[in-house]
Amino acid sequence: MARIWQSLDLIAALVVSLTVGTLGMFDVADGPTLSGATLATLGVLAGGVLHARFQVGGLVRLTRQHLVDPPPADRLLHPSAPGADASLAGAREIDIVGVTLNRTVRNHAAALAQCLRQGGTVRVAVIDPEGAVLGEAARRSTAPDAAHVFAHRLRPTLALLDELAAAPGRGRLEVRLLDFVPAFGLLAVNGRQADGRLHVDIYSHTFGGTEPAMALHSGRDHPWYQHFLGELEQIWAAGRPH
Fold it and tell me: In CATH, what number is assigned to the domain containing residue 156?
């Protein structure tokens, strides 16, 4: 029904044209009547052409909006929820990088344990709980006197990771400590596989505030996916084993 309404101008023009042709062929109508009918047909056709041009113009604007102009930020970024919205179901490789990862590791403890039980690999990198980096983390959060807060948040993270490492399973858990504050948090699921996914938290300077985050997929976001995957390996190489 929608297609019929969209083609109504063509249907009307066809009917009028056939009527005018028939009347002229059998000499039923006089000249002024035929002229008026012909002009009406041309008017209908002109209206159809104008409507088509408006549709094409709208399509061009829509194409430019989606393919040429940069997409709005809300299509790329969303509020971070310490990795809670990143699915780890069926993960064979899990890499997590962050400052303390207190909530992230706790939120995904069950998924991490399952990955290890099934023979997967889990790698976690956090800042050193006993290093000068605690002061750097506090200053970066514009709370220079809060170094003890970061140390307090790291203790349960490392304790939970120790429990996961001691649990029976065929997998391997590795933890590394960083002497610098990473510029972003990252959770990689099967990061080096064709179905890999990355969840990137962009760290701000607000102490305890909500971070903007984005999700990257190996096939869809290849250049930036490879960029952050390379950053992950660079950070991991710079850490020392726990």
Answer: 3.30.870.10
